[in-house]
């Protein structure tokens, strides 16, 4: 897979998309409702950002009934995966990334118990 560096960094330049990518990097796979809860943003806004990330081939989605789960595209070039991993690690304790993870961890009824219905 080939990713254009300009497109990649444009995707990361938006705070909401970057926050989504950092959470996905740290958590592996998340439902739209989890990202909505963690970032405290509306579902339509999260969905728009995820659509752009999907169109850029940075994330993949998978539907399970009503739920759509997103994950980092595992076929990304090594340099892209390295940037995402380094960014997530270097900012784990910084605002807003630490707060996003804290909110996610406090989310009641995560998707495995049906929060998105």
Percentage of β-strand residues:
5-15%
The counted number of beta strands is 3
Question: What is the helix tally?
Answer: 6
CATH topology: Arc Repressor Mutant, subunit A
What share of residues is helical?
Answer: 40-55%
Sum this structure up briefly.
The protein is an alpha+beta fold and 117 residues long. The protein has helices spanning 5-12, 15-27, 32-39, 43-55, 78-90, 97-105, and strands at residues 29-31, 59-64, 67-72. The chain has a single domain, classed as Arc Repressor Mutant, subunit A (Orthogonal Bundle), CATH 1.10.10.
Give the helices and strands, then pairings.
Layout: H1 5-12, H2 15-27, E1 29-31, H3 32-39, H4 43-55, E2 59-64, E3 67-72, H5 78-90, H6 97-105
Antiparallel strand pairs: 1-3, 2-3
Helix pairs in contact: 2-5, 3-6
Describe the structure.
With 117 residues, this protein is of the alpha+beta class. It has a single domain (1-83), classed as Winged helix-like DNA-binding domain superfamily/Winged helix DNA-binding domain (Arc Repressor Mutant, subunit A, Orthogonal Bundle). The chain has 6 helices and 3 strands, in the order H-H-E-H-H-E-E-H-H. It has a 3-stranded antiparallel β-sheet with strand order 1-3-2. The radius of gyration is 13 Å and the shape is globular.
